């Protein structure tokens, strides 16, 4: 199968593979969502999963994070198989997740939201660096988490996982529903994190945004990875991409 | 006037038990989504553990205040691990029925061995006697119960609202999946929360033993009122359940003075009114 080969296709390698997903299948109750996802992420890369709504991008991230009840296949992170690992232990291996719905807690103020994820290993961003990235948050520390604007909530959702020392970040549609200025700010943040050596797995609908930060892309359709290419091959793949995404 | 103050004191004492019990129920409901009908039985167990400690082991009241909540808390955690955890995600009704069944079994076992009459548990020496406040005579033990309960309630409130552990708890009440994905062992936290909630019930049981005697059905009688308190206060807030607990105790006491015939029903009348006017309870948030 063509998609089985994709995982081995060496495009824009920047380091050792930190995440290798092979034949990942996942179910929500009775419905079979992922039908064999194959891809990899190398240390220091920004990899973006593209695809239409309902293709299985979010489910892929959730499966890696271990929050999907039933999954099979193989997910190797830092040379450890984690397909059977519970999500709290996966987090402690150094994977951090910023969900699409942001997951800001309304019964916690901004400071509590920010300090909620426990530090899983040394090397997380200190608070003053986080406030340099997201100055708005410093002003709003005592506000209720969900009283923030959508953009501020997104910043908070990203900021809180930077503290933990996790070096592998999964961001699920961080630009969804946000104003262009804020999208730009998030773009700068991702670039900055990449330069600091973070590895980032991004899910995006906003292809133009993704093209400003990603090293490589994988196309997800009907629960499978059907194509993949590097950012440098982008223009050559534009036509295909339009077909895949239906834009 | 003496009688009014006396009834107010009785009201405050009942309010202390309502507050300790409804606080535990609120914490458990928040985390486990379970309406813990076994709460009254666990309160009773707390009193019995104190009774056993004293009569079988010669271990005094002060130790019982620590040991009984721990013993009953561990018993609760075993219940949670072996039974309640399997109800996660199901309708409230399942948890209610299961815990109701547990309550009946526990109470039945104690009734089988100890009958229905009360066993005496005497006030510890240090808290015997009373003081004349000028306007009324205050039995020291009763004053102690009110103040100690208040301190425990406020400490629990502080733990939940102002500490990092409490932040985990509140966050996990909202979105356990995400909290777990941050690296927190949520199932273990749920077990400990149930232990904390029933530990508070057991503590109330120990406090109540010298006042109300130790009886197998002591919790069954109380828990119905406590559920009314919870409905009135609303499940949403910790402080709400504390204040509602004490307030309703006092209202009951005042009713006993001004219109004794209604003293046993006033809480339920209030419950009906609150349900009609604000179904989520006075401090509760809409679901």
UniProtKB/TrEMBL annotation, chain A:
Keywords of the record: Amino-acid transport, ATP-binding, Nucleotide-binding, Transport
Keyword Nucleotide-binding: yes
One Pfam family per UniProt: ABC_tran
Cited SMART domains: AAA
Gene Ontology molecular function: ATP binding; ATP hydrolysis activity; branched-chain amino acid transmembrane transporter activity
Superkingdom, natural source: Bacteria
Alphabetical GO biological process terms: L-amino acid transport
Gene3D superfamilies given in the database record: P-loop containing nucleotide triphosphate hydrolases
SUPFAM superfamilies xref list: P-loop containing nucleoside triphosphate hydrolases
ABC transporter domain location: 19-247
N-terminal signal peptide: none
PANTHER family given in the database record: HIGH-AFFINITY BRANCHED-CHAIN AMINO ACID TRANSPORT ATP-BINDING PROTEIN LIVF (PTHR43820)
Similarity field: Belongs to the ABC transporter superfamily.
Job description of the protein: Involved in beta-(1-->2)glucan export. Transmembrane domains (TMD) form a pore in the inner membrane and the ATP-binding domain (NBD) is responsible for energy generation.
Protein known as: ABC transporter ATP-binding protein
Organism for this UniProt entry: Bradyrhizobium uaiense
From TrEMBL, chain B:
Record's GO cellular component terms: plasma membrane
Record-linked CDD domains: TM_PBP1_LivH_like
Source species, domain of life: Bacteria
Major location category of this protein: membrane
Record GO terms (molecular function): transmembrane transporter activity
Keywords annotated in UniProt: Amino-acid transport, Cell membrane, Membrane, Transmembrane, Transmembrane helix, Transport
A GO BP entry: amino acid transport
Pfam families in alphabetical order: BPD_transp_2
Keyword set includes Transmembrane: yes
Residue ranges of the TM segments: 6-27, 34-54, 60-79, 91-110, 141-160, 190-211, 223-251, 258-277
ATP-binding listed as a keyword: no
Locations listed in the record: Cell membrane
Bilayer disposition of the protein: Multi-pass membrane protein
Family: Belongs to the binding-protein-dependent transport system permease family. LivHM subfamily.
Name of this protein: Branched-chain amino acid ABC transporter permease
Origin species: Bradyrhizobium uaiense
